[in-house]
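Supplementary Data S3. Sequence and structure tokens for construct A.
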Amino acid sequence: MRNLKFLCALVILCFSGWGARGQEKVAQYAVGNYGKEGYEELSFWAKDGKRGVINYSYGKENRELTLHYLRRDTLNGEACFVVQFPNGYTLLVKPVGLTLQVTDAAGKYNKTFSWEYEGPVNGIGTFCRVCAADDREAMNIIKASYLK
């Protein structure tokens, strides 16, 4: 009987995913208005404090690309990291307060991305379990997973 209880508990744990999955989180930052032409979003995924996938979405149609993390770097003497587009174009991402300054090496692209809430608004929409709950948690994800 004792082995049966243990086996039942083990099956429940395996199928529920508890203990099997790590803590996966995403910090989403955006500039512009969703669904509009000038909209851009960067999504930084992390699992158990380790870097994950970086997604870049843009435009009215919300086209998406996967970016590649290149390295930690400095910008004006402050910590940043470099991401690369599939075509080789690179951007430097630097935390400034609770926002991200995103620029290219030539200084032609320079935008400030703010944390983007992903969840219900006025009771409409779905809750995002893996999304950073606020701008502070999002910045903690960036600093712990992308700047170490």
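Construct B, processed identically:
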Amino acid sequence: MRNQPIPNQQAVHATTLAIVRMKTIEAFRTRGVVVHREDATTLAADSGAHFPLENLFARCAGVSRTAWDNIIGGHVDVMIEMMREANPHFITGLSDDEFYSRLRERVIAPSALERMDAYDYSVPLLDVPGAPRRVLNLSSPNRAVTLADCHLVGRDIAAAWAAGRRNTAAMQFEEVQILSRNGIDIEVLSGDSIYLASKVADMTTLISTHLGECLYGVLFIVPNAYEFACFRPRDADEALAAAALLGELASVFTRDTPSPLSPAVYFWRDGEYCDVSLGPTGIFASTLTELRACAA
């Protein structure tokens, strides 16, 4: 038989629910949104929007009551933002200035797009099957919306791409680590923003801003939205060993992450990308030849 709360526990639980629910209704009211109790754990607005409260109850139950107002206020702000952005006319109704200021260029796995034909404006990072795709996100403090073709009607698409790239370039990595094995040093740059790995769409800026000189290009992985790992080749044998090591890291870093991106190993040089997961090809193969010639 499943354990049941003892009467006193039930009373405390019911009191907590009632107080949190009341405070949440009031927080909505002070922000200009009228909601009412739908059931014990759900609020509803006249617009038809529903706001489940189970997660909020759980967060409040685990902390002191002195922290409830801040938790509830932040939760309500997110709910109101989501309600506004759920309106099909919200994005198209933004002014150009606000629209472009909130754009971010993002690189995502193709599987993250619900229907590919709804994102005809998107482009692959490189021309191989299953390659990550470049898209535009409309970003806000608590949410990111991947824009579809319908959201860009009437906008200057070239200006949108430029704004998204500029805004993503401004995001900063928060941590740099060096992972070493058998004399191979892999640089791992990471942080909390979902746009950090997307900096690979503008590799020239990524290199000049974060890496420094990359005379013979960059081997890299983007296993999830938050991490970018790379190796700057200077020797052909080291480059091959680094590609293998990056492949192992990509396999690990794509697991148990909320934003997996790609398990592949890529190479970039002089504006050209190639997938080297299955061995040297394209610009990477020619770079290895050049490195061997330099060492001879």
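The CA atoms of residues 55 and 75 lie 10 Å apart. Confidence is low (pLDDT under 50) at residues 1-7.
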